Amino acid sequence: MEEITSQKTHVLVLPSPAQGHINPIVQFSKILASKGVKVTILTIDFVCKAMLLDCGPLINIESIPHEAIPVEGVDDFLEWFQTLMLEKFSGIVEKFGDSEYPVKVLVIDSLITWIIDLAHELGLKVAAFHTQPVALSALYYHINHEDSTNKIPFDGSAPVSLPSLPLLEKEDLPSFICETDAYPTVKRLVFGQNFNFKKADWLLFNTFDMLEEEVVNWLRTQYSIKTIGPVVLPMYFDKEYDSSLIKPHYETCKKWLDSREIGSVVYVSFGSLASLGEKQMEELASGFMMSNSYFLWVVRDTEENKLPNDFMSKASEKGLIVNWSPQLDVLAHKSVGCFFTHCGWNSTLEALSLGVPMVCMPQWADQPTNAKYITDVWQVGIRVKAGKDGVITREEVASSIKEVMEEKKGVMLKENAIKWKNLAKEAVEKGGSSDKNIEEFIQACNALN
């Protein structure tokens, strides 16, 4: 592809060190690189080794070596990552300053707002890349906005009514609002991204205008934001720069899916972090077996021991269980009729972009709010209902799948999913809303040279 300018703008990209955050920002980096921008991803050795960060020939990787990382938990790891990056960042930027292409712009995961002040001190412009929907930022805005005079009951005692958002019950709110003691560092980072909104020079969101039209229009009255997604789509349609960071089990999944009828398979995945209890895993396993559908279930190595003892042998005729899958390829396969999902934003966008209706089983963070939009706003899925003990029963699992795969409502959900698929494709195609926003961002970066 032709470069936009003869002198390349150099953009440094700093992802948050979690697979669900790395994938979309790498995909965005590939889009920038394909349009003639010089891109360097700044990360740590652990991410390169553990998350298979393969970015292709267009992107450079600058990896920071380190001693052993904390393994106690997410909070300790994120604190350690912040300390290490703040210590090394200035040296990295200065090193590039002596090269042919000094860094002019830093693109950060929106959770890494603690680097913005330092980046500005070093003369860089900063773009905050959001891996969650605009709706979440609007919601957090009202919690944190210092000028707000409304006393909004975020304790779940009453439904929450906010401009541009649907009415939110307690079960629709992000877990960080209701579960005040869980993951304190993650919670600090989530709220911190909104405290530091005004510090970033650009606010980029992995969504598209039509998908969140009302809330996008409202937030634009408060901040200058750019929708640039779904970033996965250009890579998926253009194999010149393939989007998958991980492609294990591709042939296994493809061969199995090829042998199934059109729309007969439920794809099941709960992402890279969700951890379910043994009782819930047992109910899911039984529910999938009770349903009338085939199922392809991604069960991570760390979760496999929670499956019932005889499940693997019993499920062999009806299901395929893998440790990981090429999710985009699976969702795009003609035999997949439904996605049983935790409603992480990446998974949600991928299902919408490929026209796949969903059964929602949200776990934490933004997932409950995403599920609300999937079911009530975009109307492309249904949400399973938990019992009093918080466990979703096998009967509920089986009946929810049947509702989407076999009943009249499932036809309506599929029609809506196809509608959103077409709108997503329009947004990223040349001249679409997201494509225009990316071009404007690149032009602004080029103007810094």
Give your account of this protein's structure.
- With 449 residues, the protein is an alpha/beta fold.
- The chain has 2 domains: 10-233 and 429-447, Rossmann fold (3-Layer(aba) Sandwich), CATH 3.40.50.2000; 241-425, Glycogen Phosphorylase B (Rossmann fold), CATH 3.40.50.
- It is 43% helix and 14% strand.
- The protein is built from 18 helices and 13 strands.
- It has helices spanning 19-34, 45-50, 74-97, 116-121, 134-144, 175-178, 184-195, 213-219, 232-237, 250-258, 278-290, 311-315, 327-332, 345-353, 367-377, 394-405, 408-428, 433-446, and strands at residues 10-14, 38-44, 59-64, 103-109, 125-130, 202-205, 225-227, 265-269, 294-298, 319-322, 336-341, 358-360, 381-383.
- The strands form 2 sheets. A 7-stranded parallel beta sheet has the order 3-2-1-4-5-6-7, with helices on both faces. The chain has a 6-stranded parallel beta sheet with strand order 10-9-8-11-12-13, sandwiched between helices.
- α4 links the parallel β4 and β5.
- α5 crosses α8 and α11 packs across α16.
- It is globular.
- The two termini are 21 Å apart.
- One of its GO terms (cellular component) is cytoplasm.
- Belongs to the UDP-glycosyltransferase family.
- Its EC number is 2.4.1.-.
Q: Which segments are poorly predicted (pLDDT under 50) over 5 or more consecutive residues? A: 1-6, 239-246
* CATH architecture identity of the largest domain: 3-Layer(aba) Sandwich
* Structural domain tally: 2
Proportion in β-strands:
5-15%
Global Rg? 22 Å
What is the CATH superfamily label of the largest domain? Glycogen Phosphorylase B
What is the CATH class designation of the largest domain?
A: Alpha Beta
CATH fold name of the largest domain: Rossmann fold
What would the principal axes of the Cα set say about the shape?
globular
Number of strands: 13
Secondary structural class: alpha/beta
How many DSSP helices?
A: 18
Quaternary status = single chain
Q: State the share of residues found in helices, binned by percent.
A: 40-55%
Family: Belongs to the UDP-glycosyltransferase family.
Keywords: Glycosyltransferase, Transferase
GO molecular function: quercetin 3-O-glucosyltransferase activity; quercetin 7-O-glucosyltransferase activity
Pfam families: UDPGT
